Amino acid sequence: MVRVSAGRAAAPGRIRIIGGSLRNSRLEVPDLPGLRPTAERVRETLFNWLAPVIAGARCLDLCAGTGALGIEALSRGAASVQFVERDVRAAQVLRGNLVRLKATAGKVAVLAAEEFLAGPPQPHDLVFLDPPFALELWAPLARQLERGWLAAQAMIYVESPRQGVPELPRNWMLQREGRAGEVRFALYRRQ
Q: Cys-Cys link to 131, which of 63, 88, 91, 115 (CB 3.0-4.6 A)?
């Protein structure tokens, strides 16, 4: 585990876990086109919102990329995180980060999110839905999640472009939202 002072900027190709047992650990970030790790400021806000519900949560990190959201959840007490990443190289780096951090409650599936969600559903308490913006997968993935992947009162984090709100199921009630740069981030609760 690499430790640095909180005020120091991340090295190129690395991002920092900001809270919990893995606080200040660095994650390797592969140089891949379109990879857009969730900003530290956004993660901090999100996990402040999630503080009352994260301990013991079963999480699903769809379109995981660096896995920063899921690893942050593990660091803060989530019981497990299923990471789903279609890019083989990103998935390899994510697995390497999990091994290095001894985050054994994290598992990585190398599949497109749509393919993963076509499999047998397992309900999750918290889902991170942050697909590549250009693919516009929010609505189709949300429909698939509603087929048994969400616990009754699941929380769903959605990251999307600043302009416009993705079409989501009517039973997903907006709890909190914010904007940072060109990104809108929002937390929903399934009713």
A: 63
Q: For residue 50, give the nearest of 29, 81, 26 by alpha carbon.
A: 81
Q: What is the tens place of the pLDDT at every residue in 15-27? A: 999 999 999 999 9
In a domain, 93, yes or no: yes
Global pTM value:
0.90
pLDDT tens-digit profile of 59-107?
999 999 999 999 999 999 999 999 999 999 999 999 999 999 999 999 9
Q: What is the CATH number of the domain that holds 71?
A: 3.40.50.150
The whole-number pLDDT of residue 1 equals 26
Q: How many domains does the chain have?
A: 1
Residue 4 within a domain: no
Asked whether residue 27 is domain-assigned, the answer is no
